[in-house]
## 1
Amino acid sequence: MNKKTSGNFTHGKMDTKRTILNDLLGLIFPRICIVCGDKLIQDEEYICLKCLLHLPRTNFHLHAKNRMEQLFYGRVPVEKAYAYFEFRKGSNYQKILHQLKYKGQKELGEFLGKRFAAELLQSGIFPQIDLICPVPLHPKKEKKRGYNQSFHIAKGLSAQFGVPVIKDNIRRIIQTGTQTKKSRFERWQNVEGIFEVTDPQLFDGKHLVLVDDVITTGATLEACISAILSCSSAKISVLTLAIA
């Protein structure tokens, strides 16, 4: 047996052992769909094909003046604003955000970011962009959680768009309480002045995409956009995984 054949044989044995090990791990720790709980089959990640097909997509990118863009009318100028899917309280798809934000499933953000970007690119109507910027958490909150979920969504978008992620040029300088039970006006008051831009020149003349996990009234994103536009000549679009 020559060296080349021997090498292929060795690799074949290693692949077989790896497959057996993965099968054993699958019996002990089965991979399940985070939406429906069914066992994932080979090549499925995080969400099974059936649940992906039935994901309540907004398809905002296919409609001019969509509902998300209208949230910013008369408040701050936004080039485009799209969300991937509808957040419906009590729906199984609510589990996506719960797993992403509170259960350490940060790679889920990258997975969905890639899929969202692929659908935007397939439509052929998404504008040319220069930078992708995740909406920052306050440092104390990020340290407690261990990661910023919006950063991982941005990484997934970046992998498809081929555009760099700029993580630290927007800072959250004030820690705020939860927005969940606040009115629209209270949400706006809660986030006013909470962001600052470290290097405004980095954003000058650029088209930025701000990324967040979910948008409700748009107050947090409005505050972030206002901070950017107060010190730079950037154009801004917004992408979120979900809209509530």
Note: The first helix runs from residue 3 to 28.
## 2
Amino acid sequence: MKRRVLPQLLLIALAFVTAGKSSAQDTLPELVKRVKPAIVAIVTYDANDDPLLTGSGFFIRPGQVVTNLHVVRGARRCEIKTLDGKGRVYPVAGLLAVDEDGDLALLGVDVPLTRGRSSELATVLPEEGEKIFVIGNPLKLEGSVTDGIVSAVRELPNIGKIIQITAPISHGNSGSPVYNLKGQVIGVVTIKVTNGQNINLAIGADRVRQLHPGKRKMFTEIAARDRTADIAESLYKNGLDSLWLGNFDSAVGYFENAVNNDPSRADAWVQVGYCKVKQGKSAEAIKAYQQAMQLNPESDEVRNRLGDAYYYSGRYAEAIAAYKEAVRLRPQAADGYYNLALVYFESGDKAQGVLAAKTLQQLDEKLYAQLLRETGRE
């Protein structure tokens, strides 16, 4: 049988139709419709059953909702309202997981399996300038959509990636998911206020991924723990609040007071070192990181941070030693090889730099491309 050949013009027309269908699926209105059933409005109540705070959240799994810890802190009970259709109100049964430093909480909600579509977490870090959108409940305006771009991405010790966005954010947006244009959650909005202005920040999706459900706790258990928190812990938390906002002068004061009250806190020593680096005081940063290293000798993050302080001081040999120890402790971590390759190239050891770069390429193509750009080897 003779094979039928489609005319070339018909093939071109079919290609345009296919392309049109693909692009239509990526429009913002379609994305909003697809992900909105995963979003919830949150209301908390005090011991007198009076409303405390409103916030936002989203289903990460059936019956499990992610929000900010500060939204539910101090509450006696909590409710969620789904946004699909007319919406339904469900009581929150308790807390399944709490992340104090990341300001995250995982809520347990008894909902029918047909309610609460789960959200997909992004596995790739967003780039600066990338378009995003946010769905939440600012000022009780349920399901409001705002859009913008990623204006900055930075990493904080013991916290991870912090994403700054230009999408308008108001109170009530706390706990809102930030989506990329694939409909994946790249972060969770956390409202931070300085000088009366909102700083639009989100904790990265990797931190959310670390929320593993455990034994269910009541809200009163969290409140009780807060009342018994020691001075060093309180100082540390205040330091983190300043650190989120990039206020290093204020943050380092809190962290230094924290280690003065409790010198055994390796996490606080790390934060002191980080702030000192940002202040251009690398020698003081080195001392702080060395204290952290003595307390936590198996931490690759501490070794990488110490290497950074040596690097900024121009002490390349010591930086190399610190980075090599970091990759020994955690061979599959790309950051260590990125740091190692960078300092080798900077010190003039091209051969060792190429070797470290090859390992980096195997572990993380995106970070490898960044290394090439930074060293002018594209």
Note: The CA atoms of residues 55 and 185 lie 17 Å apart.
## 3
Amino acid sequence: MEFVNLARSGALVAEMVEAQLPAARRSRPGLASVVVGGNDTSRAAFDIGQLARALDLAMRGLRAEGAVLLTACLPDPGRALGLPRPLAAPDGPPPTFADGTWWLATRGTRWVFDRCRDLLPDQVRQAALESGHHLTGTAHLLDARARAATRGALTATRGAPARALSAGSAA
């Protein structure tokens, strides 16, 4: 069996559709791993409908080549990175101080340096928006909007039905 890795750190879903998916289909894989979208979710231009359509396209295309698909749910990046609550909005315990220190020493400094220009402005804007909603008691409106957008994106694909999201699930 030949192993082909088409992943690129920092890639967005558009790159996956335009470059990685055609290359993957040409290799006619027996097994394909599809893990994409995390970089897109932290951008101001994030569109969950576009992401869902891209994932649907990728998974259908790979299945059409006869591939068995391996997918994964990634951890909440806010929790994994130990970001302040307005940036992360975690619903579980944050990482320990030792976890955060280890991440910063081994990967974090480089990650922060790389993201200062492409990610930081959007994260600051989002933190300000969420902080304003928390202060005014309207944070639930953001959650409801995210759930509705997620349901719409899932409904628009032939994938998981909209009922798969419970009222309490995060988008």
Note: The helical segments are 13-26, 38-41, 48-64, 77-81, 85-88, 97-115, 120-136, 139-156.
## 4
Amino acid sequence: MKKKIYDMLLVGSGLSSIIFTKEYLKKNSSINIISPDFKKYTNSTSGSLSSYKALPPQFKKNFKKIDDYFHLNKFKFNKKNCNLLGSLEFGGLSNYWGLQMDRNINDDIKHLSKNTQKDIKNCFLEILKENLLLGNYETFNNNFKIDYFYENLITSIKKNDTHIFEKPIIALSSKINKINKINRNCIKLTPNDIFKNLNKKKVIFHNYYVDTITKKNDLILVKCKNLQQEKVFFTKKIVLASGTLVTTKLLIDYFKIKKTIPIKHHPRLISVYFARNKLLSNLDMTPGLFQIKKNTNNKNYVGDLRPSNEIILNMALKIFSFLKPLKFIFLLFKDKILFSNNLLGSKYSNLYMKKNKDKFSIFSKNKKTLLVLKQKQKNIYKFLKEKKLIFSLYKNFFPGIGADYHYFGTVPIKRGGKLSLNEKCQVNQNKSIYVIDGSAFDFKKNLYPLGTIIANSKRVAKLIK
């Protein structure tokens, strides 16, 4: 029987994969995507992307899916030290947290050629316009208003202050009736929403884990598994959009790398504050409505503020189940409860990957990360208190090293060595392999890297098609 040879296979189902697919299908009739369906574990070889509806595992306290995922990929990790709760569910965690983006996407692409920088920025603008996103960036301006008290505070902040407020770009793919009015029942950038206007296009989903990729003459041989079932694909090109952890694992295997590979990330501490003034929002799920950054050239930490709502509170009560009897009190005061992600810069990264025999280990070394996070959080707390935004009350929640939203920087563009890419995002030592997830960038300044990643995936789709 003659083997089928694919022109291109896309691995992964996160936002970089989704944006790539949407762009690729503008000029092509079909696309083949390999990514496991955690909800089904079936022997079916194809399915529909529209079925991806799952909450992040952090808030379900359901580690089985993650255990199965790493078991099948031969990962080992220490839950007490490295939870590894990254974007493993379909569509990535960003789909659930409102897709907060930093407008300063040029901060970490300055080492690229002027043409590449221009292309990434143009693709970012296209994504904002195509998906009716909120915020502003260069010539794009679809601004929004938040509660008057906080809006006034942002516009009146002094330039010489030690901290600055900055409105992020908030990504929502719902129809906006008016510039300053947001539909409450908004839909995030989910696969179902993005593909709803592509009915004539064919998205073929293969329900497998990619176990290994190897070179086979002029082709790439892709070995896949799904429980007891195995399958081999042959392809001329493979595009890795499977997230930094999996992409790095596949390339370590491909190049037979024995050394330890550092994984860049933004260590994260979640804080809850009690506000003096209500922060009102008509969204069911919100990202941070503004960011608090250190007003220096070395912005190595940032905190965002997001209003509470019933969905977020229900998730929090799943984590802190002993507080469930007090749910009615939290709901009573929910408009005065503020959540914040406090993120450190990538210089505080503390994750490593290494292959030992036939298994991969992911581990951390420095145990002082939580102490640093608490120190930075106290600076933000002090600032909020000085501005009379909050009362002298807060609660921190540390999900653990490896429980971050952002992993990146293991296969960067324009660096030497086997784990490196050219500006077309092709692996330098095999131009048939492309990488379009966070692995391709080292985010030293930008603590909300999603915009850069998906803009680049759109750019690469244009190059490939």
Note: The first helix runs from residue 15 to 24.
